[in-house]
Amino acid sequence: MDIFQKNGEWLYSQGAILQSICAPFFVLFFLSAIYLGHVDLDWHDQQRVSQILLLLAIVFFSIFFPQQNLPKPVSYALLGIFASGLISCFFAELPGWALKEWARYVGLALLAIILGYCARKPVVRRFMLWGMASVGFIHAFQFLVAYASAFLSGMYMLDAGMLFRGFSNPRFFGQFQVMLLPVLALLIREFRQQGRRGLTAILLTVLAVQWCIALTLGGRGLWLALAVSHAALFCVSRSFWRLLVIQLMAGLLGAILLVVMFHLIPDWLEITPKMRDTWRFTLSGRGPLWQWAWEMALANPWFGVGPMHYAATLNPIATHPHQVILQWAAEWGFVATALAMLLAGWGVIHGVMYLRRNMASHHDAALWLAIVGALVLAQVDGVFVMPYTETWLAILIGLVLARWSTAAKSQPLQRYASLLLALPVMVVFSLVLLEDVPRLAENKQVYSEKHGGSFNPRFWQQGWIPLMSEPATH
Description:
This protein is mainly alpha-helical. It has a domain at 128-281. It contains 19 helices and no strands. It starts with a helix and ends with a helix.
């Protein structure tokens, strides 16, 4: 292990960890919401494959790289969660599928811990934040191009649901936006301070277009998450009011764009745009999903029905309950759920205490906004199901660990635990890439022929575990 540590220190000192070894995997993941690289994959599956490749690289190099030293209670809580989850996997109806979910969460945790050490370098933080901002810029550009094409093509048909790309569902786009918008506001603030007016104007335009997209797609959960997180930040410390002002200004510009693009121009051209219903006051099917999850949790209180196994029982609505606490209680049990809630609560409170200090900057406030917003949205949506969202959340948590912790490198016990967890994760991910991915197109076709209807994403785009298992058993 001393050899591993020395190798990791050498790589870190040379600045080669993320820049030359893992950077391509991060870039591939960033692009998975922009470029459909394989014709047989849809957006969800493309993002899942890119996520697995990134996590496999991170988990492998976690053997060599230094890690952020975690407080002992946090380390014990994580070990308790993953130990409980592993037991749940072996009691599950389909242990192979449960292990995929378990391995994914372990990989995300290791990603955050490793970034917590590596992102002490400003170049690593800039790489991540600019990667996110670049994706937001391309999405905004594609939205404007798609809008213009609706008129330049001569079709004169304006369907708001067809103007965004990169995600299988508008809600999944909103999950990314809840973290993207605070990061864009941060970059606008920094460039304005530096007097770089051109970049400030470009980023403000991107932020305004993103707000226009959000208003167009009618994501109620996104608006709720943004309102709660920004109101909470204002209550925590009013010294970060500039981030709120930037967001309000961009939101106003986005609303003006919405009126011009989807009301004034269509009225002038005598076109009736097809818009998503914004003012919806129902739970949109979440009530029964929550009830079924709660019943599963009560029937299996200690270890749940197994990771991902909400999707093992067919229902007419969805493969996950759209509520992270109920999802974990049903699938992992109350013990793992309680530990996860304690960790999340500790992180949010630790952030509040840090933001109240004089050393806290707008950078810290923006990261806190993004993470809290995602956690709020997870109470009404599948944030901890969608690959692109949950990976970005792990990345932002890693950046927060790098800024808020002054601890040294991880202790031997933590490194040994990481090694112990990394080995089975590498095996599971390797099997997924070798066995699942080559059959995705075939499974999709078989599902369409046998069952028709729409797909329900969970691990893959077709997320029902019994139906995904059919081609392998017939």
